[in-house]
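re: that complex we talked abt at group meeting.

here r the seqs, copy pasted straight from the sheet so there may be weird spacing, ignore it
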Amino acid sequence: MATTTQNTPASTNAAPSYPNQVTGMYILVKALQAVGIDTIYGLVGIPVTEVAYMAQKEGMRFVSFRHEQQAGMAAATHGFLTKKPGVLLTVSSLGFMNGLTATTNATVNCYPMIQISGSSVREPIDLEQGTYEGLDQLNVAKGLVKAAYRVNKPEDIPTAVVRAYRAAISGRPGGVYLDITTPCLGAVMDKADADKLIFTPVDPCPSVVPSDASVERAVKLLASAKKPAILLGKGAAYAQVDDKIKQLIESTGIPFYPMSMAKGLMPDNHPLSAISARSTIMEEADVVMLIGARLNWLLSRGHGKWNPQGQFIQLEIQPEEIDCNRPIAAPVIGDIESSLDAILAKLQGVKMNMDPTWVPGIQSESKVKNAKFLERLQVPTVPMTHWSALGSVKKVLEANPDVILINEGANTLDDTRDSVDMFLPRHRVDCATWAIMGMGMGSAIGAAVATGKSVVAVEGDSAFGFSGMDFSTICRFNLPVTVVIFNNGGIYNGIGVNPGEDGDPAPTTLDVKARYDKLGEAFGATTYYVTTPDELFTALTEAVASKKPCLIDVQLAADSGKESGHIGYLNPATLIPFTV
Ligand code: ADP
Ligand code: MG
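got the structure back, here u go
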């Protein structure tokens, strides 16, 4: 085993004599490459600057941001879209904390990512003596992420990277925190010894094969159903088993309902799509097969409108997820690919018992609802509302189905999700399980970098505010990203009224007259300011075709949008009529 020549705090300033000597930072880069990671997102400073330079020198891509949280959102989106952990690099203390928000969000959403943060020298942190950016980062991270490790010795870096990698992608994916101390990053070793430490893990994401009994039970229940439905979640999208899902749905003829980030796994306009019949599925289905979807708040935790007699089959990798809200009649614990393989095999020759009126009923209900919805989008209201603007956005995005759609806001999120049909898997990324704001620019960058595809981010003006400065990152890296800002001048809308007398803006009021296009101009993007649906259609068509950084400021009416969008019921009853 190789040994460090210098690994005490005092030795970290000693420069290695290249090319025969290297530091822990070189080992880190090589260890990441050995697990197949080719991109790092981050923001540098003491003590990790040289990690990023080293990554570039060794042929990796380093995407440098203006805020760590956005770099983390990019890494998380990279992880969701590629099934490989996205990597975030942060500095100590505040940089670490800013990034941790994204790593925690990734954990909640089951996206694989690894946050690597430099941390200050241990001794004065542990003795609370007050040191530069001193914070016990490992213990802060624990509890918020799937796994957290600290590395103190450069010889341990490859092991730590492999452990972080395995933890991020195996079982239920999630965010992992890797703490590397300053002395460890700076420790000097002979390059030959360092190179010998690097290894590639064998079978880092092993299959989890479901038991035969669980598959048998699930198939029996599914076949017995009169009104079955398949509910697809983002775990199904993540699994990248699109053909098997299509085979299951088309061979059984069971209608499907996609959660927002599973949209496009099957085309939204597929004859078996029940996307416009959510209530009917909830109220009437007698057997619902959940594939990579949790029965959490987004599905009323299995209560509310759901048929109390309905039974659930759940394809899930995490055993303790089962029964957490409602008893599950047929859990199938395995990775979705193995579970679908087993289910498809067992379904051979099995007769379905579906009520012959079930699918036609959903289809005619959908037809009526879709026509009514479309009418709403076709009214060319000026000043624009969310709906009249989305009429144009829908036309352009549906003509360009390979564009990845990033979406956040309140009304902007809900209305865009409902309006824009998706036709390809993993082409929609949004604020997901936590329903958070502030993922837009980071996710757009992660999607563009990870896939090389064009991206359109449809943002509420409030949502854009959280990450807007990283529009400059889109420009610096010349990414094919168009940011569309729906400006109604506020959180929810721009007509809030301060109930006091001090003349300050209301808490929900932002800047309805702001010209966000000027912000884009500052960084060299192509920009547009549009006030009519036709102008928006032309601008977005041009922007997408350009494959360059573009920003479109969409002027909406200040009164377009309602409090909290579709989830206003979560706001405690307001005593003040705040939008009089
Ligand atoms: P949605 O919000 O779209 O309903 P969720 O994030 O609630 O989706 O659920 C995704 C579920 O998928 C999680 O419970 C996660 O454990 C599970 N999952 C993720 N990847 C896999 C996989 N490869 N195999 C099986 N289950 C998976
Ligand atoms: Mg707004």
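couple things i noticed - The chain has three domains: 21-197, 212-357, 378-575. The longest helix spans residues 358-378.
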